Amino acid sequence: MYDELIREAQAALERAYAPYSGYRVGAAILCGGKVYAGANVENASYGLSMCAERSAVFAAISAGAPRSIEAVAIAVAIGRPSPCGACRQVLREFGQDFPVFLVGADGKVNETSLARLLPDSFGPDSLPREEKI
Ligand code: THU
To answer: How far apart are the CA of 25 and the centre of ligand 1, in A?
Structure first.
């Protein structure tokens, strides 16, 4: 069921721009039944680099996808992936819990979930706002 999502994450890592770390990452997000992909994009001014997961979230939202993540796949070219803390929080913005598929360089898939990656999370519902833009 999530095969396409996983394949899209693996395809995205081939498009990564990672000349400084050499660590290529691809992410794919399922929103409204459609898949949105992203890769890490580094910069000569290192701190401006962007992770694959956030690239994918921003691609989805920018494309007008429903603001609700159904599932995520993250693929790496070396070892096994683990999304950074910043990306866990950005994913949390669009859902409290959904499946996350971690795809190693060897193609092995480990299924976890956002709630496991980011327990007791802070999110939009933590703020006293009724309307969201
Ligand atoms: N990176 C990601 O794209 N996702 C993560 O979850 C971890 C780190 C990228 C950022 C940088 O381009 C490279 O991997 C090394 O940190």
So the answer is: 6
pLDDT at 1: 75
Q: Is the pLDDT of residue 133 over 80?
A: no
pLDDT tens for 36-86 read 999 999 999 999 999 999 999 999 999 999 999 999 999 999 999 999 999
Collect all residues with Cβ–Cβ distance below 8 Å to 119 and sequence separation of at least 6. none
Active site positions, annotated: 53
Domains of the chain and CATH, by start: 2-118 (3.40.140.10)
Number of the ligand 1 atom closest to the C-alpha atom of 18: 12
- Distance from residue 26's CA to the centre of ligand 1 (Å): 9
52 ligand 1 Cβ < 6 A: yes
